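request received
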Amino acid sequence: MAAAALAAEIADLVAARGRPVTLMEVCGTHTVSLFRSGARSLLPRSLRLLSGPGCPVCVTSQGYLDAACALARRPEVILATYGDMMRVPGSSGSLERLRGEGARVAVVYSARDALRLARERSAAEVVFLAVGFETTAPATAAVVLAAAAEGRENFSILAGHKLVIPAMAALLEGGEVPVDGFLCPGHVSVVIGAEAFRPIAERYGKPCAVAGFELEGMLAGIRALLAQLAAGEARVDNAYGAAVSAAGNALAWETVARVFEPADDAWRAMGTIPASGLALRAAYRRFDARERFGVAFGPDVQPPGCLCGEVIQGKVHPPDCALFGTGCTPLAPIGPCMVSSEGSCAAWHRYGRLGATPD
Amino acid sequence: MREADHIVLAHGGGGELTQRLIAEHILPRLGNPLLAPLTDGALLPATSGPLCLTTDSFVVQPLIFPGGDIGRLAVCGTLNDLAMMGARPLALSLGLILEEGLALATLDRILDSIAAAAAAAGVPVATGDTKVIERRGAGGLLINTTGLGELLPGARLGAERVSAGDLILINGGIAEHGLAVLSVREHLEFATDLTSDVAALDSLVAALVGACGEELKFLRDPTRGGLAGLVCDLAAASGVGVELDERAIPILPVARATAELLGLDPLAVANEGKLVAVVSPAAAPAALAALRAHPLGARAALIGRLRPAAPPLAELLTRGGGRRLISRPYGEDLPRIC
Amino acid sequence: MCLAVPGKILDIAGVPSDPLGPMATVDFQGSRLEASLAMTPEAQPGDWVLVHAGFALTVLDEAEALRTWDMLREALGEELPLPGAPPAGEV
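response:
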C-alpha cells in the first residue's frame, strides 16, 4: 500500500540523516489531517512535526475579536461569520455567548450568504467577519465587488484576512524556532501557486513542499522534504499537482488585489508583521466596518497563562502548556488554539492525549 | 365556529377546543383500545419477566427532515432505548407540547408518523398528554415519549460483561441521520440524496438475542455523539480498550462526502437506525448472519474488537494503516472554513 | 485552514460578467451545493472543481479526481457507484 511504502522511505531517510528532523506544517488543516489519518503514528519518533501559524482563528488577535463583539452588541448590526469564530473567548465573552444574550449573530457557509443577508434585511447593517488566509480572501473580494456593483449600503466587512508567507518569514527572521523544512498549505497554494514559497526556500535555505490533505499526499510531501534535506537542496516541491499549479489561480489573486492591499497586521502574540494582512483599498473603504462604525481593534491581550501565541509559532508543544487538559480543555477553552477545530491544542487533546499516538 | 388552522392557547385550555383536538386529530390517528377511553392512565397485563422503563424527549429542529420527522423519531428513539436494554416493547406514552402557532396540518402529519411507526412495531400509544405553550421560539412542537418493555428471555447485557477479545458489530452505514437533518437547517441548506436512517430496531434486536443468547454482551445505539461517543463510553464503562477498523465501518459515499464538505467527522455524527453489538468471538458469525438476514441489517459488518489497554482508550486503525485516538466529540459550530 | 472538497459540476446558470460569476450546482457524491465560478469561469458541466466556502477555486484534473476515487474504492473494498452514475437502489 502506498502509505506504508512512503512511511518506510521516510523512516530510511530520517535514519540516514543521523539526527532528529523538525518540520513545520504551516496549515491547521494539515495538523488535524496528520493526526486523523493516522500519519503521525506511521512516522519515526525522531521526526518532529511542529504546528505553525496556520489556523485563522488561532492567529486572529484578541483585539479583532473584541471589535467583532462590540459590533455584535449594536442593535442595528447583524454579524455574519464563519462558524469557526463562534466560540473563541474574547475579553468579555464569545460571539456564541453574545448570541445567547440576544445579539444577532448569523453563521454563514459563504461570504455570498452574508451579502444575501444584507439584501434580505435592508433595515439592518450586516457586518461580515472576513477572516481566513489566501484561500478565503478571493471569496470576500468577489462579494465586496458585488456589493459595490449593486450599490449595497447596508453591508460591510471587518477585514481580517492574513497572508501565510510573511508569517513564515517572520518566524524564520525571529530565529527562535529551529525548523528544517515546511509542509506548505495545499489549498492556500491553489490560489497563490507553489512558486509563491520560493522566496522562503531560497532566502532562508529551507526545503518546502506543497501537499494536499490525504494521507498519501501528506506523506509524499514529507518524503520530498527529507529528500531535499538529504541532497542539501532547498526548493519548492509540489506533491498536490492535481489541484496546485506553479502560478496558482491568477484570476483569484487579481480579484483579491483589486479590492485589497497588503497592510501591516497584528497576529496573536506575534506582534505586528509587516505586509501580512489585507486591508481594503481606498476605492472600497466604505465597506470597512471599522470606519463605518468607528470601532477600533482593541489591544492584543493574552489570557493569563495562555501560551497560544507560543504554540502557533512552534515554540511550545501543546501538551507542555501548564493549562493543557486541566485548566484549558475543548469544553472550557482559555485560548483559541483549544477552541478552534484546527487549533494545535485541540488537535493534540482530541487525537494525541495520553500517549495513544506517538509524539 | 370555524376551526383555526393553527394551534391557539385555547387548544390547551381543557375546554371545547381541547376536546376537538383530541377527538378529531389525535384519537383517529393513534386510537387503540388502551388510549380510546382517555382515562388518566392505562392498565397493562402483568409480565413474567423484568420490566424495563425508559424516557426520552425530542426537540429536533426542523420538525421535518429527509427520511422522517420528529414524530417518527420520538417513537423509534424510545423503542430503540428499550431494544438496547434487551427489552421487547409493550407500550408507549406520548407527551405533546404544542407551541401556539403550530400549523394543524403539520401536527396531523407528525401524528400520522407517530401512528405509523408505532403500528409498524405493533406497539400501542397507551396514554398521553397534550399541553399548549405560548409562542416562545420553541420550534413548534416538543415531544416526550416513555416506553415500557419486558426483558427478552436470554438477554443479559451490560458493559461489565464485555471482555478483551470480544468483537464489535454494526448493522449498517453511519452518519446518515445527523447529516440529513443538517441539510434542512436554516443556515446550511443544501440538497442531498441522504435521508435519515431513523428506524425501530426492536425486531432486529429480538433476532440478535435469539441467535446469540448470552453471547451477546452489550448493545447501544450511536445517537448523539455518534459511533465515536459510543466507543469512548464503552471503553470507559468496561475498562477494556476498543479498536475500530476504519476500513470496515460501512458508510455511504454521499455520507462520507457530505461530512467532509461540512468538516465533520462521520464517527461523530448521530444515527437513529443503527445499533452497535458486542459479542463473543464464537458468536460473531451467527450474529452477523442474523443481522444480515434482516432488512435493517443488510450492510451489517464486523468493525472492531476489544483489546487490553491501560488506560482503556478507543483507537482507530485508519484507512492508511496508521492509528489514532478516538475522542468524545464536542459540539461543532458549522459551517466552517477550516 | 482550508476545508475544500472536490465535486462535479452538474449545471451552470448566470453570467461571467456578474462579480459573483456564473453559479454552478456541484455534486458531492449525492449532496449538491451551489458554488460561484467567479474564480473559475472556464469551468464546464462535467468538470471537477475544488470548492471552498461557496467558491470553486480551481478545476481539477479529472484523471486525478477519479484516481482519488479509485483509492477510496480500493480502501473500502466494495463496489461504489462511479461519480455521476445513478444512486444505488439499496443502502
